[in-house]
Design a protein that fits this description.
This protein is α/β, with parallel strands linked by helices. The chain has helices spanning 12-24, 35-39, 61-71, 86-94, 107-135, 139-143, 149-164, 178-187, 206-215, 231-242, 257-262, 268-274, 291-306, 315-322, 329-341, 350-353, 361-379, 384-390, 395-405, and strands at 4-8, 28-32, 49-53, 77-81, 99-102, 168-171, 196-200, 220-224, 248-253, 278-280. It has 19 helices and ten strands. Helix 9 (206-215) links the parallel strand 7 and strand 8. The chain starts with a strand and ends in a 9-residue tail after the last helix. Residues 144-342 form the Sigma-54 factor interaction domain.
């Protein structure tokens, strides 16, 4: 909840007394002696409330109320009236004031009205952000592809983490799309309309770190390869997080940060802060059934970018893709899709390009299943038990499928 109060009164003694009351209640008071000074603080992003005297020389409290409503009609404005000035109070409420108080007002009475106004302002802003989030759709569904259980779990976890608002550690293998997941977390959060900044850890000294936190105020900062952050910057970052900054940190790494910490190469305080909310991106080797889905998306994307028609992708190509290992993960698959569209890959062989229109769903799935089994055996170097475990199949079922497709595990042993 915001704790900002813009206090406007031309009487310096009254202004100082009211400001002291607000500050003693741990509220952030911005004191202004006139409408002109106050107007500089009344902006669309102002998240607090306004307390203003009505009778001021020049532009009075009613003019301020009208100005505030023009900037944001939901900003609560509390007007201060003279003792017994009931007509003025009625007019204030009729023109949209949140409430009015008679001067001089007791501290308890002032704080009660201000607290109620701050809660109202907080709810309005939160509902507004949620409405914007709904209108923007579901970034996780729009940007994280795959139909496997692991892909579905990743989308669900990203949504939960985004709403939690704490600092996040995104980890994954090279090419797995760490920066993309960081962006989805930002877009799925209430900060989605605020800045999303990306920085390489190796480029951030303590001074640059402070500057980028200021630049990203209210938004999210993604630091790629956080393990490469210089030691002094790691310490500075841990201290910054202790101060509860308004900028949310999303750190990315392809390394084992726990091992880096144990080896003395990564700040322990920083590690334990980031380890609270981890997001791990499963490699393609863990979810090969997602490869055809991802490949088709990348082919369509590459075709649109190059202005060429998207070539058809049939079961033969699916089988060939799933039979491969993808140490470069999504990035490598994206590159292969671009080459496929340009006709510069071995997938361009005529026998793979052929799309059998008569192939039914059962036959298509059989080809895919065979490719999955062969790929699992290749990764397990012919160890059937390990391959069955990777595919989450009972050993008997695995051996039955090997027999059906004429697959011999021993032929995959190096």
């Amino acid at each position: 909840m915001s704790v900002t109060v813009l206090l406007v009164d031309d009487d310096a003694a009254v202004r100082e007394a009211l400001a002291q009351t607000l500050e003693l209640a741990d509220l952030h008071c911005i004191a202004a002696g006139s409408f002109v000074v106050a107007a500089d603080h009344i902006k669309p992003e102002f998240d607090g409330v306004i307390v203003s005297d009505i009778r001021m020389p020049g532009r009075d409290g009613f003019h301020l109320l009208s100005h505030a409503q023009g900037v944001d009609p939901d900003i609560p404005v509390i007007l201060l009236t003279g003792e017994g000035d009931i007509p003025m109070a009625v007019k204030a409420m009729g023109e949209g004031a949140f409430d009015f108080l008679e001067k001089p007002c007791a501290a308890k009475e002032l704080l009660a009205v201000v607290e109620r106004a701050l809660k109202t302002r907080s709810l309005v802003l939160e509902n507004r952000q949620l409405r914007e989030l709904v209108e923007s759709g579901d970034p996780a569904a729009r940007m994280i592809f795959g139909a496997s259980g692991l892909a579905q779990g990743l989308r669900a976890h990203v949504r939960r983490v985004a709403q939690a608002q704490g600092d996040v550690l995104v980890s994954g293998a090279q090419g797995s799309g760490i920066s993309k997941i960081a962006e989805v977390i930002h877009l799925s959060s209430l900060r989605s309309k605020r800045p999303f900044l990306k920085r390489a850890a190796s480029d951030l000294d303590a001074l640059a770190l402070g500057a980028v936190y200021t630049e990203g105020e209210g938004g999210s900062l993604f630091i790629d390869e956080i393990a490469l952050l210089p030691a002094q910057s790691q310490m500075a970052l841990a201290e910054t997080l202790d101060g509860a900054p308004t900028t949310r940190l999303i750190a990315g790494t392809t390394r084992d940060l726990a091992a880096e910490m144990e080896a003395g190469r990564f700040n322990a305080d920083l590690y334990y802060r980031l380890a609270v909310m981890p997001v791990r991106i499963p490699a393609l080797s863990e979810r090969p059934e997602d490869i055809p889905v991802l490949f088709r998306h990348y082919v369509a994307q590459a075709a649109e970018q190059s202005g060429q028609p998207a070539p058809p992708v049939g079961a033969q190509i699916d089988a060939a893709l799933m039979a491969r290992e993808w140490p470069g993960n999504a990035r490598a698959l994206m590159t292969e899709a671009m080459r496929f569209v340009m006709g510069m890959t071995e997938l361009d062989r005529p026998e793979l390009r052929e799309v059998d229109e008569t192939l039914g769903l059962t036959a298509h799935m059989a080809q895919v299943e065979q490719s999955l089994i062969e790929g699992a055996l290749r990764r397990a170097q012919g160890q059937a038990t390990e391959a069955a475990r990777a595919l989450k199949l009972p050993r008997k079922t695995f051996y039955d499928k090997c027999t059906r497709y004429g697959i011999k595990p021993e032929e995959f042993r190096s």
